[in-house]
Design brief:
Blueprint (H helix, E strand, L loop, with lengths): L1 H24 L22 E13 L2 E12 L2 H20 L5 E13 L28 E13 L2 H10 L5 E8 L2 H29 L4 E15 L22 E15 L2
Length: 269
């Protein structure tokens, strides 16, 4: 029994020594990690070519923006501002009550307009004439205060927007009409143009490869861009009737263009 124990002990020790010597005999270079090559950062020797393609579609503008203004002139700046504000608040509240109308404030200005045709009499400092502008009142030398405010009414329902302008013309006058393409309509059109633009880019790339007698191509980079170009158009308007009918307006058209620019690698045959 003691002999068996000693034999087993020596065998285990021998095995440990063998593994230890074997590990020490492994060259250091055998376990050194080799740097990996990243294909994305590798320098390509293939020639590159810049290309561009585009697709367009002309559609009717679906949104109208009406500019309503209130302008008053007088001797008292404070009274004029108060009157313009009251008119704007009244029209704004009326527009907010209609879900088809979007209202926002445009420009708002108050300024003193001097009458340059009237001779200016010299005045001593501290007199009523010299301090008129500081007091918010027109002076005796000739001049007047002007207050002007704007509201912008936007809607896809052009008939309703036109009628709204007629309903509030006693408070604010129609001063301008602008047509545009809504964001929703533009996004729908651009989705349709994306397929056409991509096809046009591929066709141009294939034509270039064939003309230059290469074997194929692969894309290096791509960029998308969009351009909206309204056609030259003057909105048609008719005067409002006594029955408070809104002006007859007709939207123009707009050309939406989606462009694609990029670079390709030209591959050998």
């Amino acid at each position: 029994m003691p002999r068996t124990f000693s034999h087993a002990f020596l065998s285990k020790a021998t095995l440990i020594a063998m593994f230890t010597l074997g590990a020490m005999a492994v060259p250091a270079t055998a376990v050194r990690a080799q740097p990996a090559t990243n294909p994305a950062t590798a320098q390509s020797t293939e020639p590159t070519l810049a290309l561009s393609a585009s697709a367009s579609e002309t559609v009717a503008q679906d949104t109208v923006t009406l500019t309503l203004t209130r302008e008053l002139r007088g001797d008292n700046q404070v009274d004029l501002s108060r009157s313009v504000n009251e008119a704007m608040n009244k029209v704004r509240d009326k527009a907010k009550s209609d879900k088809d109308l979007e209202v926002r404030t445009g420009s708002y200005q108050v300024w003193f307009e001097r009458d340059n045709n009237r001779p200016v009499q010299p005045a001593a400092a501290g007199t009523r004439t010299a301090d008129a502008k500081d007091n918010g009142k027109a002076d005796d030398a000739g001049g007047i205060w002007v207050a002007r405010g704007e509201l912008l009414i936007t809607s896809k329902n052009m008939e309703k927007a036109s009628q709204f302008a007629a309903d509030v013309d006693e408070d604010m006058a129609l001063d301008g009409i602008r047509f545009s393409l809504s964001r929703e309509a533009r996004e729908t059109i651009e989705k349709r143009l994306l397929a056409a633009t991509t096809k046009a880019f591929k066709t141009r790339a294939q034509d270039a490869v064939a003309a230059l007698e290469f074997g194929g191509y692969r894309i290096k980079s791509l960029r998308l861009g969009d351009v909206g170009q309204p056609e030259s158009y003057q909105p048609r308007m008719m005067a409002m009737s006594a029955a408070k009918a809104g002006p007859a307006i007709e939207a123009g058209k707009e050309t939406v263009t989606l462009s694609m620019e990029g670079e390709i690698f030209l591959l050998p045959k």
